[in-house]
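quick one, two chains, predict together pls
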Amino acid sequence: SQKIEQNSEALNIQEGKTATLTCNYTNYSPAYLQWYRQDPGRGPVFLLLIRENEKEKRKERLKVTFDTTLKQSLFHITASQPADSATYLCALDALGNEKLTFGTGTRLTIIP
Amino acid sequence: GAGVSQSPRYKVTKRGQDVALRCDPISGHVSLYWYRQALGQGPEFLTYFSYEAQQDKSGLPNDRFSAERPEGSISTLTIQRTEQRDSAMYRCASSLGSGGWDTQYFGPGTRLTVL
């Protein structure tokens, strides 16, 4: 069956270090993979999108990699700050299918 | 401009009642999505519209759930004969286009509690 797994429900990282979140999927062939941030009591907010033919994408302190062989995406936040504390969700779709399927999310806490 | 809005923000109802949840997408957005999100989980797809056409309703749990978007803008998700298991956060999202590459903009959600 199709499955999206995000590493550990919760991740605690010291301020200033790099936080790395993992998204693994099985039985999907996504054309795109997206990362969203969700703060408590709010809806998810889009961060980055990476296409299946892209290996890496960057935006300011954020970096996403996409390995279709390993069926994995890594999401990095460099020089992490307490304001980066939130739940991060990966979401993917399959070619020709507009429906996004979300992972369960990883709750990231940056410790000052 | 205004983002996606949803109303009501909170809805408490008794088992067996019908409820209607409203979503007002960002003006001009072609696509509108409904999700259900349980605590500690990611959003779970329910249904999707492109303009007024319901393109995919594969995520609707059963025939008590229905949705419409008659004029291609505002959408209503209706749950008939509510049950306690329907209690959840219901989220709406819209996107400018209709591809998997399109950014989805989420509303604040409606918290539904069925007593």
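Chain A has no helices and eleven strands.
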